[in-house]
Amino acid sequence: MAVVACSNDSEVGHSIGELVRARHATELRLADATKFDWEQVYIFAPYTPRTAVCDTLRIQVKYCARLIPFESTDDGEMSLAFLERGRLVHYARHSRFNGDFTPVPAKQPLLRTNAVFQVVPDDTASDGRTWFKLVAK
Description:
This protein is an alpha+beta fold. The chain has helices at residues 11-20, 50-57, 61-67; strands spanning 5-7, 27-29, 40-44, 77-84, 87-95, 110-111, 116-124, 130-136.
């Protein structure tokens, strides 16, 4: 099994948030938010159980908890799974405040070249910051 980098604080999610909140951002290329190689990405909605993630990624039960160390237990968080040559290389927690992928794209996985989203202002948080929807192109 390849070593998988996982992140509870989600460097990827933070990078997405910075790109989405950049002045006049209208598009997000998910590849611009990552510092590692990947070919495909799966986006999992809030509350997706670990077992469903492992089934989707075809991870054997005996490796599931080790490779998928957390699952979304909050409406405000999603998870992103990045694959290279069919193997999981990065699994990250993603706060929807950094860009809301819901509803998740129907056709997954998304190829790196196709993981492009329109940035759409959606709502205003109590602190005055804008919430953004990320709509698959």
